[in-house]
Specification:
Length: about 80
């Protein structure tokens, strides 16, 4: 089983929609990990949305406004 490296992003700005927070987290991940584009973001179950570029999954133990962005090995999940 492969490992996933996550970047944890926190944004509690009530004026910013969740989709914009996720996009900011994706950009931060890509900068931090030298251009690697993430394929998953874990969020609080109340913040699950559809996103065109990334799989968004709700996880009960993740706090609101916290986004765990990562690159999962798709082959390892098969």
């Amino acid at each position: 089983m492969g490992s996933t490296r996550f970047l944890v992003w926190f944004d509690d700005n009530p004026k910013m929609p969740v989709v914009k927070k996720i996009e900011a987290a994706i950009e931060a991940y890509t900068r931090r990990f030298s251009g690697i584009i993430p394929n998953v973001v874990l969020v609080n179950e109340a913040e699950v949305i559809e996103h065109k570029d990334i799989s968004v999954r709700g996880v009960s133990h993740i706090r609101s406004n916290t986004f765990w962005v990562g690159k999962e090995d798709v082959e390892a999940q098969a």
